[in-house]
Write a structure and sequence with these properties.
The structure is a homodimer of 259-residue chains.
Chain A: E1 4-5, H1 11-18, H2 22-28, E2 30-34, H3 36-44, E3 49-55, H4 59-69, E4 72-76, H5 78-84, E5 93-98, E6 115-119, H6 125-137, E7 142-145, H7 155-161, E8 170-172, H8 175-184, E9 188-198, E10 208-212, H9 221-226, E11 229-232, H10 244-256
Parallel strand pairs in A: 1-4, 3-4, 6-7, 6-10, 7-8, 9-10, 9-11
Antiparallel strand pairs in A: 2-5, 3-5
Helix pairs in contact in A: 1-5, 6-7, 6-10
């Protein structure tokens, strides 16, 4: 039987609550995952928690995960769980795991059919999560994010990826590092740009990297200028542009036909 | 020079604040639109406000819109504006307009190339807004929403549509009414379903209606069974499914190639 922590001043509670701050979580090298579905996704993908956290109603869950993975388990009363929770309606389960490395080498497919989704300055966690989920669904090689793109290991992003954040490599690189890498590997670079030619998958080839810019401002001129091709998604209606995650998905879908 | 309302107990302030409640807004037959971008989108699409509301910093804006459209203008101090605002960081501008009719007849294109996006029980306002934006971008004829789909004239949905909520017809129908209408008009009905055949636009024809289900549960069995074809989006990667708005966008994009 585990002890239940009942004091909001407990040092472990304070530590977990401090992870609300994205910079603290990054500095500590950890990811805070919350909610039944997100925790199950992470565990199902082989994520080994350093600690699982539960309210009293989920004590059995915490015990089970702790026994299966050898991690520590913490039981909190409702007041303490609410303090460490990052959601409005806490579900009573959370875990902390080591933050995946985002500076590693990219492992290529080996058949020269790699597709890279490159995101410059994406700010909305829901959009970023949806894009990661899409990239995973369509079999892309990796998602590359610029230094100013929001943290992919933020709880909202993790939730929107529905587990994909643990499947597909996510690499943080400057746009200059990207172009250097793509030049070296003979990878075509596509700028998604409203002034580009209409997307026609028959005119494209793999390996290919496509660049999607900030939700409000699109790609920077610098990044656009460095791409070898400009394409836009044909739109026969009135809206001037698509949601960034939708644009990233449509082009990812078309390119995946070439795999 | 307009008077500035400074009392939170003012009846107009209370009325505007009451519109936070979606049912109240529906019962009153109005839409509450907030923020610079959303208000400009609405006005740019010819929406005539019944009243514009601004904080003192945006008095000139309110005066201008009031003069241009003949609507009333209300100036509120910051405390009162915060009370009527539905956002965490109010931008100081809002408007109220007559709620568009959602029970009208659908106007067809006339060339038999109609595409309908039919949404059953979509719950996330951001998803619904993104879908409406996509339907407008790809030139679809209308978005049809089930009775349990969230309110398209909720402020979050309006924001996510980036103005498209004012461009494309949005009609609320039961799924039974949909199938009756599509049978009558000879419209092919497509269920987006993970057990369907892989999407191939060459096997599809217009007019066509495609059905997208709830974010967690997908389409109901009843609706799926009534569709004439089942299709799924080919996914070569690991994720088991796509975000509902992404799925709706990919199929909408493919079908729009047939227009």
């Amino acid at each position: 039987m585990m002890d239940v922590i009942t004091s909001k001043d407990n040092s472990k509670v304070k530590y977990l609550a401090s992870l609300h701050d994205a910079r603290t979580a990054r500095r500590e090298g950890v990811v805070f995952v919350e909610g039944v579905r997100s925790c199950e996704d992470a565990l199902g993908c082989g994520v080994v928690p350093t600690v699982v956290v539960a309210d009293e109603a989920h004590a059995d869950w915490a015990k089970k995960i702790s026994e299966e993975t050898g991690c520590d388990a913490l039981l909190l009363n409702d007041v303490c769980f609410k303090k460490i929770s990052q959601t409005v309606h806490p579900q009573g389960v959370a875990l902390v795991a080591k933050r995946p490395e985002m500076s590693g080498e990219i492992t290529l497919r080996g058949d020269n059919k790699d597709i890279f989704m490159c995101l410059e300055d994406i700010q909305d966690p829901g959009n970023l999560g949806t894009m990661i989920r899409t990239a995973d669904a369509f079999g892309l090689t990796a998602v590359i994010i610029s230094p100013t793109t929001c943290d992919p290991y933020n709880d909202k992003v993790i939730r929107a990826t529905m587990g994909s954040v643990w499947h597909i490599p996510i690499v943080r690189k400057t746009m200059d590092e990207c172009f250097e890498y793509f030049t070296k590997t003979g990878t075509e670079t596509l700028a998604m740009h409203l002034k580009g030619n209409e997307l026609n998958v028959n005119e494209l080839s793999l390996p290919c990297a496509y660049f999607i810019g900030n939700e409000g401002d699109g790609l920077t001129d610098e990044t656009t200028a460095k791409c070898s091709k400009f394409v836009k998604i044909p739109m026969k209606g009135q809206a001037e542009s698509l949601n960034a995650a939708v644009a990233a998905s449509v082009i990812g879908y078309e390119l995946s036909k070439l795999i």
